[in-house]
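It would be a great kindness if you could assist me with a short task in structural biology. Thank you for your consideration; the sequence and its tokens are set out here.
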Amino acid sequence: MELDSIECVSSMDGLMEEDEISHHHHPPLLHHHQFASSKPHNNAINNNNAANTNGINGIVGPTAIAPATSVHELLECPVCTNSMYPPIHQCHNGHTLCSTCKTRVHNRCPTCRQELGDIRCLALEKVAESLELPCKYYHLGCPEIFPYYSKLKHEVMCTFRPYNCPYAGSDCSVVGDIPYLVAHLRDDHKVDMHTGCTFNHRYVKSNPREVENATWMLTVFHCFGQYFCLHFEAYQLGTAPVYMAFLRFMGDETEARSYSYSLEVGGNGRKLSWEGTPRSIRDCHRKVRDSHDGLIIQRNMALFFSGGDRKELKLRVTGRIWKEQQNPDAGACIPNLCS
């Protein structure tokens, strides 16, 4: 199913005129194994402490919470450069490495090439046990400090950890904070950007019987000071070709629960509707799609909505996003619609 045979018409709030926009093949991207942040930094700190700051991928953080370099280096595995956790192994000459890399080097010390044996470096394990270190995402704003052995567990779920690119059409490896990813989607993936909490899209396909797994589209909406990704795609659900639309929130799951959205598709006097909570982009696109958490339209129904001789798909998908607000008097949530 060719991408450039799909057209998408968007209307911002209050504007329902249709201007057809052709979606062309996106140019291939270099798959950057990178992390970036658009978070501003304190210039005074950077200027006064330029010689005493730790840079991570070009991001500079204050030294007040940076880990002690010498101790940190002692606990760094020389093979994988990750922090070492018990059991920490050492050779007869005192060189250390983590348990994962011990099997990778075939029981040979990567430093002196001597046989490792099964010697534990208990002294270094004790040193690690006494340490308290900041989260590795401190440069992104995480203020937490943890005992060395608790730090790793926190970092897996840290709300300040970077996000993966939400673009569904390629294995994009770019990660970053939300402002950086919004710019990345706009500039590198050429994603359509819209402002407002209502939308009116028309998806057109000249040969709807060609459904590959999967053809996708992505549009980004900005409202309530947040960004939302509207996905629309055709794919095989088992042996049945279907179309699916769903919304993802560019932020954490706890924030996503503050919002709701509705989708509606119809024609010939019939309609299907969906209402739900947007999923966080922490959940990958495939996970959301495969959980069927969105508006699913069987191909026969989609062709019925399209009308005519059923040889061309013309689906109009409308929807809106709103923020749930707690009513302090009744204890109930009331929708806050953007104007």
